[in-house]
């Protein structure tokens, strides 16, 4: 059985150490967390990608991001399907 789980971050810089702790715990238990960002700073590479997690970026910006919405859900579904990720 494939133990993938989707971990969605609204603001990747908020509570960063808590997120890292949770993601590492999931990995230790045999899960494969996929980290989805709504937005991130263009000049920064994902810390989670550097640690070996698969990351998805929904291409929003700080200015236009209004929280989780149906549009963001469709973006996420499209990315998952286009990358042939099974969750």
List the helices and strands and how they pair.
Blueprint (H helix, E strand, L loop, with lengths): L3 E6 L6 H13 L3 E6 L9 H4 L3 E4 L12 H13 L5
Parallel strand pairs: 1-2, 2-3
List its salient traits.
87 residues, alpha/beta, three-stranded parallel sheet, 3 helices, 3 strands
Q: What general outline do the C-alpha atoms trace? A: globular
Query: Domains counted in the coordinates: how many?
Result: 1
Average pLDDT over all residues: 76
The count of DSSP E runs of length 2 or more, i.e. the number of strands, is 3
Summarize the structure.
The chain has helices at 16-28, 47-50, 70-82; strands at residues 4-9, 32-37, 54-57. With 87 residues, the protein is α/β, with parallel strands linked by helices.
Structural notes for this entry:
This protein has 87 residues and is of the alpha/beta class. It has one domain. Helices cover 34% and strands 18% of the residues. It has helices at residues 16-28, 47-50, 70-82, and strands at residues 4-9, 32-37, 54-57. The longest helix has 13 residues, at 16-28. The radius of gyration is 13 Å and the shape is globular. The model has no long low-confidence stretch (mean pLDDT 76).
